Amino acid sequence: MNTREKLLDSARYLIQTRGYNGFSYADVAEQVEVRKASIHHHFPTKADLARAVVEQSRAAITEQTRLIEGSEFDPLRQLLFYTGYWERCIADASAPFCVAGMLASELPSLPEDLAEGVRAHFRDLSRWLETVLTRGAQLGVFRLKGAASAEAESFMSTVYGAMLTARAYGEPAKFSQIVQGALRRLLAPEQPSPPPQA
Question: What count of Cα atoms within 13 Å lies in the side-chain half-sphere of residue 163?
Answer without folding.
Answer: 24
